[in-house]
Amino acid sequence: MSKLTRETLNKIKQEHAKPRNNWIKVGMSTCGIAAGADIVLETIKQEVKKRNLAVTVGQCGCAGKCYAEPLVEVCIDGVPQVIYGNVDKKSAIEIIERHVANKKLLNDHIYNVKGK
Amino acid sequence: MSGKNDKKIILVCDTDGKQREADYADMITSVLSEEKLDGQVQVIRVAELGIYGQGVIVKILPENIIYKISDETAIAELVSEVIKKNKTLKESVLEDNPKQLKIVLRNCGIIDPENIDDYIALDGYQALSRVIFDSSPEEVIAQLKISGLRGRGGGGFPTATKWNFARRTEADQKYIICNADEGDPGAYMDRSVLEGDPHSVIEGMIIGGFAIGADKGYFYIRAEYPLAIERVQKAIEQAREYGLLGENILGSDFNFDLDIRLGAGAFVCGEETALIASIEGKRGCPTPRPPYPSIKGLWGKPTVINNVETLANIAVILLKGAKWFAAIGSATSKGTKVFALTGKVKNSGLIEVPMGITIREIVYEIGGGVFEDKKLKAVQTGGPSGGVIPKEFLDTPVDYENLQKLGSIMGSGGMIVLDEDDCMVDIAKFYLRFCVDESCGKCAPCRIGGFQMLNYLKDISRGKASQGDLLKLENICNSVKKASLCGLGQTAPNPILSTLKYFRVEYDQHINDHRCAAKKCTDLLRFVISKEKCVSCGMCSRDCPVNAIPKNENKEYIINQELCIKCGKCFDVCKFDAVIRE
Ligand SMILES: Cc1cc2nc3c(=O)[nH]c(=O)nc-3n(C[C@H](O)[C@H](O)[C@H](O)COP(=O)(O)O)c2cc1C
Ligand code: SF4
Ligand code: SF4
């Protein structure tokens, strides 16, 4: 990585700011990890790999809903962008099967709906 | 964001979280299938939509409109009008009026904290670049002054004034320190910011360095926060690689670098003079002020110490404008405050609200109300330096001055909801014990006074104190407040004084009637087994640590009061509510 100037900083901003679809994010702060987010993240990574899905799996910090950790945000083409809460290994697999592969939402686990 | 999606989705949410006889999602599905619409519409039961106490609601996607659904007629109307005819039922639309406003937490839960490009994509380091190339230190401080930003570490000192002191003091070397010692029980706001968005704090520190004329900064983070430390470390390294830290930042002639210093977890090390001593490698003991750190701080040099949350505000203020920030909040307190909402509240978590919001809105509209729908008794703010705000004042707008008037403080952001099962003597004892444990012992009022206050509180909770003792306790409180050297001792009596102010009756009950109405003070309780309810399962007997519950010849379990140490195990394990506290 080279040192940035004002111009190259703006270039990174523009390149990186393009809206992207088809990603999953797991909240990996202390509150999330304490509730098992690391297992959920690992499970999701494995399932995505196993099924060869074109989905990026990433991590983020605490979104505030500590009572519903682990939180998993899913943004997939053609399905509303939602945050699932109280996710465990089993529901993580369900998210991949139902939401990512079959483009259907899951019952009882949605804690927030994003976007328009 | 979600791409093309014209198929309707009905999200069904029970905002009361109560047990209902009918499952509204099933009811809607069956009406849909009668109308042969079930193939075209997805019905999903959701856990939450950020709205509470409104019964059953539905959110229709992709239109994003919320309706309240009270009965079968409403369901029929929903299906026939909204789904079939694609109409909007204007009269029944429920406005979603979000109470939270995220400025400090703008990126938390959104970006990958370990990827600097994520931060840059969302305007990260734009404020820094503007400040360096288009502005001046004086202008930055002038902007902060207009914004009205006050320190979020508890004291609420105007940030611009602090920075200006350090700027105006001549010195060959100056420092800026981020105070991430966060030691109040129940508080984790700063940890979440560092774990979720470390660059926002780093950017604030670099700008601070530019404004006061410092080229060196330190993060002081408690060692119990390993993940925060790791993320800040990674963020510093990435910023260095990009030339956002180090020499000639962004190609300018401004130099600034950052290092991390770890705190060993002593609460008093969050106090600024103790923190400085700790970084200097000395014992973390406070020293008298003045001189204030902004004049004479780390290694005798002018030093600005700011809280994590204060620093996370800086870049946004400079980017969006001081006036924008000053328009948020109350007359004396601008912007937002992050709280760790915990205790007997349904949705405990990290929230950020505009100053001036009422406590009622926080507890009921963000927190979803009191756990198990019990009665709220009070809300504790400010941790061991703060106090309780009783339910009569739930409609008070939250700001520095209002909370102080009520005998509490804003503090760093702990907010604990207390219900009818919480005993105020017990709460005061809990916080005081914390302060006594954490006192550095340097000055007598705090060291000896704290010990004495705790003894009186213990006696009160055992029903072994007199009204005279209570007066003595009050006296000591006032002396410790006045005579202690640092903020720890000066504020340690606050939880006692504030519970006494509003809940003196509870103290009186303990003293005069030897009774703890909340059934918390175990010394005033007896555990007994109700003959009617006991099914002789023997659970309590097995779990009692002192074998105080033998089975008698009639196969009955009776607690031997001589042996019982009142640990409460039997009360907790009995599934038949047969163990009674009286
Ligand atoms: C006992 C004690 C503990 C403190 N702990 C903290 C802390 O953990 N974090 C913090 O930011 N400020 C803490 N403070 C306040 C600091 O001394 C200082 O006022 C603050 O960091 C200034 O930052 P601000 O102006 O941005 O609020 C504490 C004060 C006392 C007396
Ligand atoms: S008030 Fe307490 S913590 Fe502060 S210097 Fe005195 S003894 Fe130490
Ligand atoms: S309160 Fe504890 S010690 Fe007493 S009887 Fe119950 S389990 Fe035994």
Characterize the structure shown.
The complex is a heterodimer of chains A (116) and B (582). Chain A has helices at residues 6-17, 30-34, 37-50, 89-101, and strands at residues 23-27, 56-60, 72-75, 82-84, 110-113. By secondary structure, chain A is α+β, with helices and mostly antiparallel strands. Chain A has a five-stranded mixed sheet with strand order 2-1-3-4-5, with helices on one face. In chain A, helix 3 (37-50) packs across helix 4 (89-101). Chain A has one domain (19-114): Glutaredoxin, CATH 3.40.30.10. In chain A, strand 3 (72-75) and strand 4 (82-84) form a beta hairpin. Chain B is α/β, with parallel strands linked by helices. Chain B folds into five domains: 9-92, Glutaredoxin (3-Layer(aba) Sandwich), CATH 3.40.30; 116-325, 3-Layer(aba) Sandwich (Rossmann fold), CATH 3.40.50.11540; 336-419, Ubiquitin-like (UB roll); 424-513, NADH-ubiquinone oxidoreductase 51kDa subunit, iron-sulphur binding domain (de novo design (two linked rop proteins), Up-down Bundle), CATH 1.20.1440.230; 526-582, 2-Layer Sandwich (Alpha-Beta Plaits). Chain B has helices spanning 24-34, 72-84, 116-121, 126-134, 137-147, 159-168, 189-196, 198-212, 226-241, 272-279, 308-320, 322-326, 359-366, 400-405, 424-438, 444-461, 467-483, 487-491, 494-513, 539-543, 569-573; strands at 9-14, 42-45, 56-61, 65-69, 175-180, 216-222, 257-263, 303-307, 336-343, 349-354, 376-381, 387-390, 414-419, 527-529, 579-581. In chain B, the strands form four sheets. A five-stranded mixed sheet of chain B has the order 10-9-13-11-12. In chain B, strands 2-1-3-4 form a four-stranded mixed sheet, covered by helices on one side. In chain B, helix 9 (226-241) links the parallel strand 6 (216-222) and strand 7. In chain B, helix 4 runs parallel beside helix 8 (198-212), helix 15 (424-438) packs across helix 19 (494-513) and helix 17 (467-483) packs antiparallel against helix 19 (494-513). The longest helix of chain B has 20 residues, at 494-513. The relative contact order of chain B is 0.08. Chains A and B meet through helix 1, helix 2, strand 2 and strand 5 of A and strand 2, helix 3, helix 4, helix 7 and helix 9 of B. The structure holds flavin mononucleotide and iron/sulfur cluster (2 copies). One iron/sulfur cluster binds at residues 268, 286, 439-443, 446-447, 484-486, 488-489 of chain B. Residues 527, 544, 546, 548-549, 559, 564-570 of chain B line the site of one iron/sulfur cluster.
